[in-house]
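User: Here's a protein and a ligand (F0G). What would the complex look like?
Assistant: Let me lay out the input and then the predicted complex.
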Amino acid sequence: MNKRSWAEPFKIKMVEPLRMTTPDEREAAIAGAGFNTFLLRSEDVYIDLLTDSGTSAMSDRQWAGLMLGDEAYAGSVNYYHLEDAVHRYYGYKHLIPTHQGRGAEHILSRMMIKPGDVVPGNMYFTTTRAHQELAGGRFVDIIGDAAHDVTSTEPFKGNVDLKKLQAVIDTYGPSKIPYVNLQCCVNMAGGQPVSMENIAAVGALCHRHGIKVMLDATRAVENAYFIKVREPGYAKKSIEEILREICSHTDGCTNSAKKDSLVNIGGFLCVNDDALAEEARNMVVLFEGLHTYGGLAGRDMEVMAIGIAESVQYDHIRARIGQVEYLGGLLEKAGVPIIRPIGGHGVFLDALKFLPHIPRDQFPAQALAAALYVESGVRTMERGAVSAGRDPDTRQNIFPKLELVRLTIPRRVYTQAHMDVTAESIITLFEEPERVVGLRFTSEPKYLRFFQARFEPTQGDLVLNRSAKAGAASAR
Ligand code: F0G
């Protein structure tokens, strides 16, 4: 037999026990959390697929690096290690560390956006758009139509539609466009990558008009992997080379190091322009901390430097995306409606197809995430109308084309057996979708409402009615 199974490229040195709960306990927990998985206590969660953000397992080398923290207020040696790693792997000239990605977005938005500006981007991300709007700007979506189409299987669904970008430039003029925000492995589209050809074309078009391109490099390493395996001409290039090439077409980046870079906290802003770097260093002192620590401990910067180097290793990234594809493959085989191609950081369920009986204004993806938790203790998150929020002008709910539940896979944390359990519980729900009940708001926060909103079922008290099928209960 020639078959060789795939396995995680690490062995486990330390374990963290998981707590199993009963369906009764989970019904009480989700009701107490206002049917919002963000408001659950993590001790009530069995397999936590809420996010891949800050949830990675660190390597033994990173844990060793923690002990090398130089906690000097200024000029910590760890800052210089981080600077070396960012120069080597991302290639930008100036590094400004921040406590996480949105710290970098805040500084970038504040220093570059004037009231009345527009910021084109390949789909919005929640925190990114919120900071653009707080600075007086407006986000304009320039992603290709394929990204909004759950049936499209294009390999680079994150690509910018260059005609849409040109139209925005023609309509508003370059003086109203402080920069184009180019996101790698577009999160809200299902972790869909951007091709190198498209990145280069966006860079060239913007630079012809004197417009800067700022990369959201949060998942740029995952994007580099997809370029390697999907784009002609890149199969023989290393992830490291591809990552640098991506960045070379842009003028700077924001990065949430809590994802690709394998740390539990941290982020950074990079720019090539000297004057912008000076402005960013002035601002980081106000909002984050001195420019050589940006809200982080020395040890945090050390583990980030090590994590960045580990993130570009081929075995690591292949296994990381391989695990996501493994889970997606199990669901696909069972006919569960998911976004295809399977993205980099998670599998996204199409809640509109999964729960056709729940109208959009009863938030099917929110209901599905809550119901899945009750079913099996697996925690996921809504990425649909609740996340999209309200139109800043009309204050009406935005109903994006995609109404998704995200099963986000932390890096190096779970095994394939956890993926099996997750898939089985989703398939169980998929066999009896009418058990799931829609939701309505009972409280709605003003900013980034999905994090703290509370809901109630539109009928009865349960988001998931008990199964009529005997024995169809769940992982206990
Ligand atoms: N950009 C992207 C594409 C992100 O996915 C995130 C965070 C950020 C910026 C902000 O970074 O959290 O470090 O402040 N995404 C997390 C998620 C929250 O669950 O997708 P942050």
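Summary: The mean pLDDT is 96.
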